[in-house]
Amino acid sequence: LPVLAVIGRPNVGKSTLVNRVLGRRVAVVQDTPGVTRDRVSYPAEWAGRRFTIVDTGGWEVDVEGLDSAVATQAEVAIAMSDAVILVVDATVGITETDAQVVRMLRRSGRPVVLAANKVDSPAQEGDAAALWNLGLGEPYAVSALHGRGSGDVLDAAMAILPEVSAVAAPSPAEGSLHRIALVGRPNVGKSSLLNAIAGSERVVVNELAGTTRDPVDEVIELDGRQWLFIDTAGIRRRVRQSRGADYYAVLRTQGAIERAEVAVVLLDVSEPITEQDVRVIQQVVDAGRALVLVNNKWDLVDEERRTMLAWETEHDLAHVAWAPHINLAAATGWHTNRLVRALDAAIEGWTTRIPTGRLNAFLGEIQGATPHPLRGGKQPRILFATQVQTAPPRIVLFTTGFLDAGYRRFIERRLREEFGFVGSPIQIGVRVRE
Ligand code: GDP
């Protein structure tokens, strides 16, 4: 069924409007922002059409502040809906939060109907007209409370709601080249690896029709497929390491990571893992990019070093144990052909999308088997979850209370066991309903 979401700032009358559609009082509609109900989506029918209506109205109290709550709510609604009714309180007029939500909606490309609510009498219609300024077309004057005009806004919503839902469909395959950054501290072997894999096949990007972007990038063919390697000029240019150059290298690394989909972090296994290695890895995770770890210079590893390395890896890199980790020797070409499989795995994990139904069913199972520990006589529960984004995956959990860091890690671990997410950080947002 197509999904219609009703969003807007707290207390603008979303739930009242949803109740009009549902034709019964499912929700306890309060006059103050806050709780309405546990569910978010309901089967609905209007003008003979069946659809799912999403009311995020119950999720508006947020520990991080109102604006972020509304933004999250809009993010969620956008991710899970085919069309949106944006409800604005006409007696208040346009707020910065409304404008912010409009920008998000516009970026999403979802069709929107604008409801100017609380127009309880014809004398107030001027208030509604002022909302033309949001740039969403005609504001439908509504009094959700009295029912006035709500039929018109719902008819308009039916006109923009597609017959068939697109939100459950997988995102279309991207035709463009995957973007890879090779990063790591100086002398770990980045340029050696680049030379090993580029061979004679390398093409500087600005020579390749249609891909001209940044002349520091190169297209490299691996396994018969083309990949865009980011900022390879920075790798090829051997900079003498002075303090200044070091700072420059850090900036350059940051830039390459930002532009990439997958960052390949090289480690020199002939030396202990350093703080700088860990920092580069953290940069990748913080940027939300897919991560592949490479143990380079494997030819220099003996039995003793191998044992040490296993220990170091367990201690320093446990938090990224989800990343593909391959051993190779760039200088000799040994196992460099394993890079492609790791890249593919990481991209797949990074773009994984879990349907909302499956996600909630799974979280229900987890909580049934292992509920959150009791805290002060209360037990925080996850009521609803949805993946609002891929690349990287971002999941928002709506809960009845704060989740302990330990429980959040447990959830992440179970999600990885169930759904993979190989090579990808997972961003988990928690919204507490009070
Ligand atoms: P970059 O600064 O990360 O680009 O590192 P380079 O590619 O310039 O490599 C630094 C040094 O490590 C050079 O002397 C390379 O020859 C050496 N090196 C790179 N890869 C390997 C490897 O797999 N095995 C060995 N033994 N040496 C390597």
TrEMBL record:
Reaction catalysis annotation: dCMP + ATP = dCDP + ADP; CMP + ATP = CDP + ADP
Kindly report the protein's main subcellular placement as a broad class.
cytoplasm
User: What subcellular compartments does it reside in?
Assistant: Cytoplasm
Enzyme superclass (EC): transferase
A GO cellular component term found in this entry reads: cytoplasm
Q: What EC number(s) does its UniProt record assign?
A: 2.7.4.25
* Binding positions for GTP 2 per the UniProt entry: 184-191, 231-235, 296-299
- Positions binding GTP 1 in this chain are 8-15, 55-59, 117-120
Entry's Gene Ontology BP terms: pyrimidine nucleotide metabolic process; ribosome biogenesis
* One GO MF term attached to the UniProt entry: ribosome binding
Annotated EngA-type G domain ranges read 2-165, 178-351
Q: Which key words are in the record?
A: ATP-binding, Cytoplasm, GTP-binding, Kinase, Nucleotide-binding, Repeat, Ribosome biogenesis, Transferase
What does the UniProt record say this protein does? Answer: GTPase that plays an essential role in the late steps of ribosome biogenesis.
Q: Assembly and interactions?
A: Associates with the 50S ribosomal subunit.
Q: Which family does it belong to?
A: Belongs to the TRAFAC class TrmE-Era-EngA-EngB-Septin-like GTPase superfamily. EngA (Der) GTPase family. Belongs to the cytidylate kinase family. Type 1 subfamily.
Name by which UniProt lists this protein = Multifunctional fusion protein
Full protein segment contained here? 286 to 719 of 724
